[in-house]
Known about the structure:
By secondary structure, this protein is of the alpha/beta class.
Amino acid sequence: MEGEEKAKPRICIVVPTYNEKENIEAFVRTTEKVLKDYGLDGHIIIVDDNSPDGTGEIAEELAREYGNITVIHRRGKLGLGSALKQGFKLAISKLNADVVFQMDADLSHDPRAIPDMLDVLSSGYDVVIGSRYMPGGGVIGWPPLRWFVSKGANLLGRGLLGLRFRDITNGFRVFRREAFRLLDLSEVKADGYDFQVETLYRCASVGLKVREVPVIFRSRTKGKSKIRLLSIASFIKTTFSLFMERLRKRRSRRSPQPIENA
């Protein structure tokens, strides 16, 4: 009927954690306030890799308090990529989410950006990326080396994979439910920092409509960064592997097709 209020989408926010006891409570309370203030139907999925600092136990206490939090306890540090995939699958198959966010627990991804990202998604896009490197976006608190590594990774990935986005490595993203019908998560092999570039590459490859919106990224003030030299090496390896896959597909499209007998 005319004037009838449109049903609000069911939102799931997937948050991988490992040793985030100093941040997880502040993240959850800030996110819950945003959901309440904007009248959003939201559910938080915390995927904890058996954090030795007790992050999982704090998450369970918050789950009992709020009632809209699911905590997945894994047997060990199994990787960012597998944590996100497990959370995505739960959001879609069990919680019937209409849209799925991925966010970090260290407050570098500001929950107050959630409503704006939802508005952009609802305007006809399949995936929305929070971009640090477009006008209006930015990074606060990074040392020069961290900034250099991030910019270098973006330049490498964009150049080799033909991605036209400014920020292909930020993990603040939201997916429409329907995006997972084309994005086959089983094809995504990357499991660390490189998970972000591989998922975006595969989104673009299957024709999903992706949009960037500016966000301010604040460097963590508590806890330790998970980025290590091994993560950077893995990112480079994955990017070159995807580049070779891209070349093979281009050559295959150019190859003449055999003529079948009538």
